[in-house]
Amino acid sequence: MLTYALNEHYDTPLIIRRKNSPEYCFNGRGDVAAKVENCSKKLQTLLEDWAIGYNSDKLMLLYGDDFDYDNMGFAQTDIENMEKIMSYMRENMNIDIKFGTPSEFFDDLAQSKPTLKYYTGEFFPYANRKGTPTKVYWTGFYATRPQFK
């Protein structure tokens, strides 16, 4: 079974996420071309950081989150800005970036035949809520041998 682990959340990275993000590259007034270049460089850095954890030149960057595009004007502007970033990255950074579906991503990933690691054992217990005095532990969730639980 071919699976993929997301870096953090299924949300758009803050640098290109317009809704409620002070880090959004297109905030404020100014030269749009300069903003596109800035956004592209920040996104390239982010993707290079992400790529360290994968044995493939294919990365999935999700675009959107719950209720992000309930306003058509907002959605249109966001997509147009992302198209500018993708165009800049293809033309100036030699990065093949495109909109696609999860099926297209997994087809491309499988065709690239990455060297995959084989893992046996449990993925849990898992502890979350870093930095809090009490951690929450998850056990028996997505276990490899649920019949023995």
For the termini, the CA-CA separation is 22 Å
Helix content: 25-40%
Q: How large a portion of the residues is in β-strands, by DSSP E?
A: under 5%
Q: What is the CA-atom radius of gyration, in angstroms?
A: 19 Å
Overall structural class, as computed from helix and strand content, comes to mainly alpha
Mean pLDDT level: 79
Biggest beta sheet attributes? 2 strands, antiparallel
Estimate the global geometry from the Cα principal axes. globular
**Physical arrangement of strands within the biggest beta sheet:** 1-2
Domain module tally: 2
Tell me the total number of β-strands: 2
Helix run count: 3
Poorly predicted ranges: none
Order of helices and strands: HHHEE
What would you note in describing this structure?
- The structure is a single chain.
- With 149 residues, the protein is mostly helical.
- It has two domains: 14-111, no CATH class; 119-149, no CATH class.
- It has three helices and two strands, in the order H-H-H-E-E.
- Strands 1-2 form a two-stranded antiparallel ribbon.
- Strand 1 (126-128) and strand 2 (136-138) form a beta hairpin.
- Helix 1 (32-51) crosses helix 2.
- The longest helix has 21 residues, at 72-92.
- It is globular.
- The model has no long low-confidence stretch (mean pLDDT 79).
